[in-house]
Design goal:
Largest sheet of chain A: none
Strand order of the largest sheet of chain B: 1-2-5-4-3-12
Number of strands of chain B: 12
Structural class of chain B: alpha+beta
Order of helices and strands of chain A: HHHHHHHH
Shape of chain B: elongated
CATH superfamily of the largest domain in chain B: Rod shape-determining protein MreC, domain 1
Number of strands of chain A: 0
Strand content of chain B: 25-35%
Number of helices of chain A: 8
Largest sheet of chain B: 6 strands, antiparallel, barrel
Structural class of chain A: mainly alpha
CATH class of chain A: Mainly Alpha
Oligomer: heterodimer
Strand content of chain A: under 5%
Helix content of chain A: over 70%
Number of domains of chain A: 1
CATH topology of chain A: Arp2/3 complex 21 kDa subunit ARPC3
Distance between the termini of chain B: 80 Å
Chain lengths: 172, 280
């Protein structure tokens, strides 16, 4: 009985991996986004939120994504609500893609992801610069979009493996 | 054409309005809520400020706890590197100490002389009150160069106070919560500090670039600024006291002037916050 319960808890933790990873990535001092190379940065939460909203919608609750966004804003010193809005928009795009897709194709997902982050980042950039009058380096933002786009395919590969392993029964 | 447009509307509606069994809120509701929060961020209402401050306290503390394992690895790495460099550092320090000892005597004389001259010209005297703080969170973001310290309004921290590391200016306080505060680093794009470039007492404004160097702005090109000049705070505007060292003027590859900061911003663990007050 104890063994069964332990397995149940482990299973639950493994299935909550995307949301745990999201919170760790926004709260951790080490930023997946920035590894101290010039111009190199990528938005890991975007990749995470898009992938899991697209492939396994139930593994990321919208409420948690919203809270993770608030934490990200507080930690990064951005106006509260900006990251939540961006993450939720990414979720919305992913949900839309899920609804219109009959046959999933990684390449099409990838291109759609590029469009998603371009639209979302443009909106956020507009809000930061015009609404809040905070200076941002435009070039940094462009590179961030570019690397986020590039890294999506790599992380999607690892997430695919994880998903196949953990959500095996549900997928069947 | 009509059916495809209908499909589009249905897909959008389904994505933003419908929620599955696991989702408690619809996307549209949360997006709407985010927009309200963003709008409220723009305005400063007391109640909202209080909620925001409390939320930030929780976020900073949580972030500090989550970062503990990574911090431990980082500290271990640096202490290992320190051990490996120990002998070389010892030699360098010994040499430096000898030079400093001889300079100290000279400094004491100059300070005394400076004090005497200031009294002669009746310049306003400042008293400094120092508060030491630990760097709680240093999230190195490419967009905003700032960090969180573990002192807030409870310890009488105020917006605008100077933050120093080993006597060098590193930034200023831009946000104060009850137990924590945010320091905007000199490297941030939004940082603008009135400076004095010596020798020559050239007044200027130094701004952050988002990189490891600063830029000198608003000075006439013919002014004689050259490599090796030292940049100090000028004290203009009354934010900081004058004479806090910031960095050294260097030339980049394109022969443009840039300020090489004295402080290594990636190694900040403890900082000193100084409040300069006029003595009546």
């Amino acid at each position: 009985m104890v063994k069964f319960q332990k397995r149940k808890i482990t299973n639950k933790v493994l299935k909550s991996f995307p949301i745990i990873l999201l919170f760790v990535s926004v709260l951790n001092e080490f930023d997946f986004n920035y590894l101290d190379f010039k111009y190199f940065s990528f938005n890991f939460p975007f990749i995470l939120v898009f992938y899991w909203s697209l492939k396994k919608n139930d593994s990321l609750a919208y409420g948690f994504i919203f809270i993770a966004g608030l934490f990200n804003d507080a930690v990064n010193g951005l106006p509260i609500g900006l990251s939540s809005l961006s993450y939720l928009l990414v979720c919305g795009f992913a949900a839309y893609l899920r609804n219109i897709t009959l046959r999933p194709d990684l390449f099409k997902d990838w291109l759609f992801f590029l469009m998603t982050i371009c639209v979302t980042n443009s909106l956020i950039y507009f809000l930061i610069v015009v609404f809040f009058e905070i200076n941002l380096n435009y070039l940094d933002y462009i590179f961030n979009i570019f690397f986020t786009f590039l890294f999506y395919i790599i992380f999607a590969y690892f997430f695919d493996i994880y998903q196949r392993f953990i959500f095996k029964k549900e997928n069947d | 054409m009509q059916p495809s447009r209908d499909d589009f509307v249905i897909a959008i509606r389904s994505a933003f309005l419908s929620k599955s069994a696991q989702q408690r809120f619809s996307l549209l509701l949360l997006i709407f809520f985010s927009l309200i929060l963003i709008s409220l961020s723009k305005f400063n209402f007391k109640a909202i400020d209080f909620v925001r401050m409390s939320f930030k306290e929780v976020a900073y503390r949580s972030s500090f706890i989550v970062s503990i394992p990574e911090k431990y690895i980082k500290i271990s790495y640096y202490s290992l590197m320190d051990h490996l460099q120990l002998y070389k550092d010892y030699k360098d320090t010994k040499n430096e100490l000898q030079i400093l000892k001889s300079k100290e005597l000279n400094n004491k004389y100059i300070i005394a002389e400076n004090q005497r001259l200031k009294e002669t010209i009746e310049e306003i005297k400042f008293s400094t009150e120092d508060i030491f703080a630990k760097v709680l969170l240093d999230k190195d973001s490419p967009f905003l160069k700032s960090f969180i310290i573990n002192k807030g309004s409870k310890q009488k921290i105020k917006i605008g106070m100077a933050v120093l590391d080993k006597g060098y200016l590193v930034g200023k306080i831009v946000e104060v919560n009850f137990l924590t505060s945010r320091v905007l680093l000199l490297t941030d794009l939004n940082s603008k500090i009135p400076v004095n470039i010596e020798p020559g007492a050239i007044q200027s404004i130094m701004s952050g670039t988002g990189n490891d160097y600063g830029q000198i702005q608003y000075f006439k090109k013919q002014k004689n600024i050259s490599e090796g000049n030292i940049v100090y705070t000028s004290g203009a505007g009354g934010v900081f006291n004058s004479g806090i060292p910031i960095g050294k003027i260097e030339l980049d590859n394109n022969k443009n002037l840039q300020v090489n900061y004295f402080t290594d911003f990636s190694q900040l663990r403890f900082v000193k916050i100084s409040l300069y007050e006029e003595i009546n």
